[in-house]
Design goal:
12 strands; five-stranded mixed sheet; 4 domains; 19% strand; elongated; single chain
Length: 444
């Protein structure tokens, strides 16, 4: 830059002048008879030395003032550019740097104000927990939700329930948990998530609390309506012939000469229909009392081998391919996972049973992107895209002999673990049901 060249030029000139005057002074002193000239040369040498010192010192002072201002955050200070020469250029360069720094600081401050306003207005309550177990309510939603505690320590939040206190007291992250909150208006369920961030070199946990009682109530009401609609339809379908047969039996037995054989057949039909209704109601009761998962770690290989033996005993005519990654370890409830996969295997076997060569494949692999994934595939007719969401509904089935509860139970088990279950197409030609068992998900 121009300042560098001018500063170096002036500095070099002063150094040359000082050296020249020193050489001349040595020559004059050596002559011994040039006293006046010696004095003038000596004064010139002193002047060159003083000029050199002042040139360097003035530059140092400007730079020192600039650095001092930066250290104290004073970006409003300005340097006099009227001195001209290299010092004017230096002052101008410093002023430009301070203006740029001030503008950047203003942009950063605006962005921080925007982020603070956005966080403060988020509808999800945010809390921070530092290493001293001190809790800070980070936004308006948190201040509105948590208004009954006294103090900032974690233990003060016990008034909102032990479940929340447990989430706040943990040292690690919480992927997702649904906990009951004891609030002024009563108990409400909320989704709690937590993550770790660094603040000024110290770890801080950020906890998000999102009340979902209203949404859960709406979902539960919708589910109840669907169940009532399906149950009403199925029960009425079963009661209509039962009512008709009961009337027919009463007529047959009320005649003067009862046709006992016809009455016996009618009663037997009634018994079969009643047994069908009993099995249907038992199926519904199974949906209503699915147990909670009890997670532990276990090897995938032996687990899959056991499922293979169970399948081959029941489905002798089916080809079953089994694939499991060597050394893969799963973290879940093995009993519930077995129930889930047995339901999927049974559905796959039934779907492919009408094929000349029924083929089913079970695989449990560790996907680099999704983690452990269990898949059951078949070469049956597949599941149309239009009904892939409906097949998980209770009692929905595309087969005349189906009960419509197997996939619903599988979905309940997956949701209880915090997993995702999806239906797609298989390379075998039929359907593929995949269960994404993401590590750390759910309540396992």
């Amino acid at each position: 830059m121009a300042f560098d060249r001018r500063f170096a030029g002036v500095l070099a000139g002063l150094v040359v002048a000082l050296l020249a005057t020193l050489v001349a002074l040595a020559w004059a002193v050596g002559r011994g008879d040039l006293h006046a000239v010696t004095l003038l040369i000596a004064l010139a040498a002193v002047g060159a030395f003083v000029g050199l010192v002042r040139h360097v010192e003035r530059t140092n002072r400007l730079i020192a003032h600039f650095v001092e201002g930066l250290r104290h955050g004073d970006v409003a200070m300005r340097f006099d550019t009227r001195s001209g020469g290299s010092f004017g250029l230096l002052a101008e360069a410093m002023n430009d740097a301070l203006r740029d720094l001030g503008a950047e600081r203003g942009r950063v401050a605006d962005e921080l104000r925007f982020l603070e306003a956005m966080i403060d207005d988020l509808p999800v309550a945010l809390l921070t927990v530092d290493a001293r177990r001190s809790v800070t309510l980070a936004n308006k939603a948190a201040r509105r939700l948590f208004d009954r505690h006294d103090g900032a320590d974690v233990t003060a939040f016990g008034v909102y329930g032990d479940a929340l206190l447990d989430c706040l007291s943990r040292s690690g992250a919480v992927a997702q948990a649904i906990v009951p909150l004891q609030l002024a208006g009563g108990t409400q369920r909320a989704i709690v998530r937590a993550g770790l961030v660094a603040r000024l070199g110290h770890p801080v946990r950020v906890v998000a609390v999102e009340p979902v009682q209203g949404a859960l109530d709406a979902v539960e009401m919708g589910t109840q309506v669907d169940l009532v609609r399906v149950l009403s339809h199925e029960i009425l379908n079963s009661l209509t012939p039962v009512t008709s047969l009961a009337g027919t039996t009463a007529v047959l037995l009320g005649e003067e000469t009862p046709d006992l054989e016809e009455a016996r057949l009618a009663v037997m039909t009634l018994a079969r229909r009643a047994e069908g209704m009993r099995r249907f109601i038992d199926s519904y009761r199974t949906l209503a009392r699915l147990p909670e998962p009890r997670g532990r770690e276990f090897a995938a290989g032996p687990f899959v081998a056991e499922l293979e033996r169970l399948f081959r005993v029941e489905w002798l005519d089916h080809r079953l391919d089994v694939v499991a990654d060597p050394g893969l370890t799963l973290a879940s409830d093995p009993d519930l996972l077995a129930q889930l996969l047995i339901n999927l295997l049974r559905n796959a076997a039934q779907a492919s049973g009408e094929r000349p060569a029924p083929h089913v494949r079970l695989s449990i692999r560790n996907d680099p992107a999704d983690g452990p994934v269990a898949a059951v595939e078949d070469n049956g007719p597949g599941v149309p895209i239009a009904v892939r969401r409906d097949v998980f509904l209770p009692f929905f089935t595309t087969r005349a002999s189906g009960t419509g509860i197997g996939l619903n139970i599988a979905r309940q088990i997956a949701v209880a673990h915090g997993w995702r279950i999806e239906i797609g197409d298989s390379e075998l030609g039929g359907a593929a049901v995949r269960v994404f068992m993401a590590p750390g998900g759910g309540r396992v």
